[in-house]
Every structure is written in C-alpha cells, then in structure tokens.
Amino acid sequence: MRKLIVKYSSILMVTSGLVFLPSCDNNFEAINTNPNTVPVLTPSLMFSKALYDGAANSGNKGSLLFGLMQYTTSYNDVEGFGSKYVASQVNATGAVFNNSYPTQINEIEEVIKAVKVDPAKINMYAMARIWRVYCFSRLTDLYGDIPYSEAAQGYNLKNYQPKYDAQSAIYADMLKELDEAAASLDPAQTLTYGSSDLIYGGNVEKWKKFAYSLMLRLGMRLTKVEEATAQSWVTKAIAGGVIRDYADIAKMSYTASGQNINKNPVAWQLLNDNYIKADGVSNVEGGKYQQVFIDSLKANNDPRLGVLAVVYVKGVASSQDSIQKGMPATITGTKPGDFVTYSEPKQTTVLRVDAPLLLFTVAETDFLLAEAALRNWYTTETASDLYEAGIRAAMKQWDLISGIADVIDQDRIDSYVTAHTLHSSATVEEQKAQIYTQFWLGIFPDAQEVYNNYRRTGYPALVPNVYPGNATGGQIFRRFLYPVSEQTLNRSSYNEAVANQGADDLMTKIWWDNK
C-alpha cells in the first residue's frame, strides 16, 4: 500500500514529526520542524519542477521508443527491447506510468490547487492547465485508459485506488481544458511564473500558441475514430493561432553544469546508457543507430546525416556521409566484430546536454497542417507548400539543438526539398505517406510523437523486426503495459480498465487507434 500512496498522493511539503511522550513537549514544534522543508507551497518553484519532470519523463523513453521507431538498436536484448520486442522485457513498458504520477502529475496538480483560487493568478492557472494536458496526453497516448479525474487525490482525499478514465473521456476533457485555458490567458494580467517558467519565461501570447498547437496535435489524433470531432478541434486550433515562428517553439532549456535535472534528459540518458566514453567501442548497453534509419538518410542524400551521426575511426568521430552505417536490429547476444564501424549519435548535437528539448516545433505544425490541407480542413495554404515548409523547418531546428547558426548548408536543404516534392498527382494516401515519412525524419528525437502518428496513419511504413522470442508475433506493438503493481495495489480499477479497453497486452489498440 505504501507504494500506491506514494504514486497517487499529492506532494507533501512538510514531513511528519516523531511521536514523543506527553511530558516532553517543550519546544516540540521547533524540534520537530524539518529545516529542509517549507510549510507553504511556492507555486512558481513547483511549476519549474513539474516542467522538468514532465519534460524528462515525456521527452524520452530511452531505447524503447527509439528502437520501436527504428532509430536505434542494440545487440543486447534488454537494451534492444524496443527494436526486438523481446518477451522477457515487456514489463519495462510500465516505467513511464510508475514515474509520472509521483512527479509531474502530482506536482502540476498541486500548482493548480494553489493558484486557481486567486483571480489575479489567472495566467498562472491557465499555464498550469496547459502543462497538465501536455503531461496527461503523453501518458494516455502510451497506455490508453489511465487514472485521470481521480489522479493525485491520495493525500487530500485519501483516494489511494483511483479509477481509470476511458481515453475518450480523457481526450474530451483535455481538449476542453486547452480551449478554456487558451481563452482565459490575459496579457493585461501581468502576474505569471516569470523566470520559473522554463519554456516561455511567462510570455502569455506564446503559451496561448502552445495551447492551440496542442489542440491541433490532439485534434488530429482523432481522425481514425471521430473524424468530425477531429475537424472541429483542428479548425478551432488553427483559428486560435498555432506555432509557426521559430521564436514561438515550445522548448525546455538546460545547462551542462549543476544537477542532472538541469541537463537535457534525452541526451543525458543516451550518454549514460551508451555513449559517455565517445570512442565507438565502450557502449555499455551495445547501442547504435539502426540500419533502417541510417539507410534512409543515406539513400535520400539527407543533409541531416552528418549532423546526427558519427562513426569513430581510430578513436576519432567522423561525420563523413559515406562511412555512416546503421546496425541491423537482428544482431543478437554478442557484440559484433565490426561494432566500431556502426554509426551512433553525435556528441555535439543529439548528445549535447545543454541543448534545448523541443516540445512542439514549427515542423510539427507544418506537417499536421499539410494533412489538414489534404483533408480540405485548411485552405489558406497548399499541402505541398506546407509539406516543404515542414522539411525546411525540421532541418532549421538543428540550429537550436546544436547552438550553431546554419548548421545545415542552405544549398543542401534546397536540393533536398527539390528532390522530395509532394507528388500532386499521387493519391491522398500516398501524399500522407510522404508527409509522415518526413515527419519520422524531421521530428527526431521526439520518438513518441512519431510513434503516435505511426499508429494513427500507418506511416512511415516500417517493416517489423521478426526476432526470436518476441512478444508480439513480429508486429510493432500498439501500446505500453500497465505496471504489474497495478494488478495488486489497484486491482478493481485495473480490472475495470481492462474490461473497457481490452486485454492488458502490447497489441491491444487504444481508443483513438481502434480501427
């Protein structure tokens, strides 16, 4: 029960005191006050922590989603689970669920409770609601039905066994929250989180664009299951104003010094799992870029190849395009003799710990709008122009990640765009395939958004790795498993979720994917 209380309880700001005999009550309050805690929550500080934790847990699922979307792989079955679907490792998928509730979910709920009662803090309340949607959306998109309406009620309401809400209801509420929060943001009200807002520094207009961009993302997510509803929310988001300029990109900033929480979580995890020694050989978990990804970049003369990948030649990193080589996902058990010859992430770009983590980019907006244009939901710009703008934006964003202006040569970008125009004579489905293949290449390293759109659209058309002893019959799995602890500590709610959604299985489709 202790683990359940910790998972679903709100954050306690004051620790419990020890129990003393009644005669020993002199200076009781002073003696039993922890000097390292504070009695009253400071919303701005807690908001910063919720941003850090939400970005860290949502920004990277380690080798799992990287492998699943065929960016990376490993000869090690444990590290390579995402690319091999090894049956013995399936419970690793429960970690995101377990990590989310005690941290960002509890934290952002505490912030909301602290600021919602004060009309002067309307912007702080709206920003917290938007971040809450971001965190919950990333969670429900992996698991489907999850605790939502009763989450974070352990301490305040002693609800240690929250119900699982249906994903359809969660989506309806998240979109409502974005709508209301965006509408309530008021530039005339100057009270914000200020420098504690690690995404926009308290800029109200940029938070409004972030809210409508999330609405666009979540609205488009519904195209398979509720097309009319999807169109309604997508058109509302576009009318509200989405992220189209680089200055408005939603990103978390990090530093190379200080505690690990201050470092880019994607880069930090990749470094510590595999690439910290930067020699191409001493990769603890056996990770390398996967053959599918590198082959695609090379075959299309993609100028991102030398920005993303290196091969170590006599201990020195080389970005030379011709020597880049991805490792097959079928390699198993023993480190291959030519291990050093395979490509891995570049230290000064993908593995840069002080690089910003991009949460919502111009490129994502452009690609989603390109699909909206194909559906005739957006007619101001053509699908072709939006698609090409998405490619350019996806390449340009590496300036932000690398910290180098024009890190990709403009002439090479132009040549790539010319060689990859959207085929106007192709079918709508064929054009969607082009859009979301470029999405796969351009949104990296946000593997979760690629995974979400892969399940929704079927693109890119990745070929599953049929690996011995896999848990999915050689198919790319459709969801994550709930933690095993839920079957004992929250069994009734767990059983209701399984009855509603289907078996707690990797191949069970979640609501918006269920067609």
From TrEMBL:
<protein>
    <submittedName>
        <fullName>SusD/RagB family nutrient-binding outer membrane lipoprotein</fullName>
    </submittedName>
</protein>
<dbReference type="InterPro" id="IPR041662">
    <property type="entry name" value="SusD-like_2"/>
</dbReference>
<feature type="signal peptide">
    <location>
        <begin position="1"/>
        <end position="25"/>
    </location>
</feature>
<dbReference type="Pfam" id="PF12771">
    <property type="entry name" value="SusD-like_2"/>
</dbReference>
<dbReference type="InterPro" id="IPR011990">
    <property type="entry name" value="TPR-like_helical_dom_sf"/>
</dbReference>
<keyword id="KW-0732">Signal</keyword>
<keyword id="KW-0449">Lipoprotein</keyword>
